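[09:14] KT: can someone run the structure on this one? pasting the chain below
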Amino acid sequence: MAMKPQFAGVLFGAAYYAEYQPGRDINRDLDLMREAGFTVIRVGESVWSAWEPREGVFNVNWLAPVLDGAHARGISAILGTPTYAVPPWLQRKHPEIAAQSANGARIPWGSRQEVDHSAPAYRFHAERVIRAVVSRYAPHPAVIGFQLDNEPGVALLYNDHVFQRFIGWLKNRYGTVERLNDEWGLVFWSHQLSDWTELWRPEGNAIPQYDLAWRRFQAKLTTEFIAWQARIVDQYRRDDQFVTTCLQYSQPGISEQDLGEVLDVAAGNFYYGMQDHFDQRGRLPQPSHWTTTGTAGLLRQADRAFATKQSRFLITETNAQSIDGSHFNCPPYRGQLRQAAFALIARGAAMVEYWHWHTLRFGAETYWGGVLPHSLKPGRVYKEVAALGKQLATLGPLMDGYQPDADIAFLWSTPSRYALQFMPPLKADGGPDGQAYERIFDSFYRGAIEAGLQARIIHVGQAVGLGAAELARRFPVLVAAGTYCVTDAELDLMREYAELGGHLIVGPRTAYADEEARVRLAAQPAGLAQAAGAWYEEFSNLQTPVRIDASPNGPLRLGEQAAAQDWIECLIPNGAEVLAGYRHPHFASFAAVTSKEAGQGRITLVGTLPPLELARQLATWAVPESIKPPFGPVAAPITAASGTTSAGQRIWFVFNWGWDERQLSATAPLNEITSGDPYPVGSELRLGSWDAKALIEQ
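[09:31] RB: done, structure tokens below
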């Protein structure tokens, strides 16, 4: 394993595919990159057919001019293994490597990632091309790291041999069919097995315990695949070269925490709606399941990437111009590229890399805009990118050892995400909502961002690794919302966290089921109700919003528009203080929010998806001692984020997510990093439309 990478600065660049533009002047491209302040490019991962145009015939020298030219200009490279897009000759020779979908059909060729990456024939040919490419370029001085595959876990694999491996995995996990019958409750609908050969295929499955095991197994296959590639690359890479893979965090076949354990550094592909999608309040709908809207959506992507390894991360792809299909064209307003970059860096990004350098004239991503437009001539976007590159050259050296600050922490549970995709408690467009987990999580996360707080996402397994005492010391406020599947040990951790001084905020569906997605036969939230001084047995979807009123003597102050939507857990106080209730003929007999001291800390129960006003006030009340910006309190459309460097300096980033100019007043001496302008106490900080500043406290 190579040394753990230490990113002192901020890498800046784009994916570069000279092979996609025949006749391009590589030297001119690289000169433009250098002038734009680029320090890194990503190359090679998409074109297996260029590396191996015919079986066993390798052409590995075509990339050398790109890497030689980059190195001569001080630009590094991340080299990708080309395993996610297989060449036609391999598809034709081995049709059995095609991935099989849930309907039993093989996924047709013609796109990418149609392959069963566990198939022996695929592995044979993939290993051969990996070795050919990596052995040729690992010694190259431009290559600083390797990207293994690309956005793994895009599809669940239903191939016959995968199913047989699943049975073997179940045997190792459960031992006997009798135990499986018991753990999965297979007496239901007469599903009890007498032999492993009787296990039905997942295509027709309706049992949630089966589905959760199937999803865990699929994530294991993805982690195994990336770890397998890492072991091959390990044989060639230098000690100063890292391995990563670019994660698309919405993919169904991944567990990002598990993947993080086999990588040197986490990396992700971050896409977000721009233009008015950047409005801090996120009033426009999410463009797609992998493209966020609003400031909170942007920041949640970054915080989730940081959580992969609880350390700085790389952005291997992000918006330069319009991103998505030909029907969704929203290039950034002036200033938004800088805003997005600064926002992601403030939350721990050690690299910002655009998809991609030049907009393509052909292919499925013809209208995914690059730094250069279709004319391939530098335009407005290039000029803004180049201006940002110069600023990052000044900011980067100060980011040595940077760690983003956190006022409040949020538990992330991948098993709960799987379980709530299979049995969603929420609906969308009249049917079950496959993004129910994210909706529950985001309703609390967005409130914290709107309250001007800084968030940290921590996986449940990482929290267990810290232990209750250390968790309470690092994060005085912890939100568990949608944390549906929890083990007894994880329940104990939450309760002990509160007893040792933490404030645990419990949102809908938390602790409802155990690690097998079996409902806990106890007053809900199970294992927490007694300590929380409140419980519930009924829950309801809401057909129309239900008004929420704050208790007159409580800490919350809600306006007339505060209303529960989508979901209610009918909380019954049993020693807890009621902070909010419902204005409704039936639901008025239940509490909306309760809170009670528990040991040295506190447990607060929230029985609905909190509207933004309630979520914001809850976060503000729970975190009275937040890290205060040195320019006074901020409110929409202004946000601020900060972090500390290894030298102990605090760097602040402040943003204006709107058209109107805003002013702030310095309450401590500050210097703007990119311009060098000083801001003594009492001086005015002006933020233009869609503006961002990086400041250092003196």
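[09:33] KT: thanks! The mean pLDDT is 95.
[09:34] RB: yep, looked fine to me
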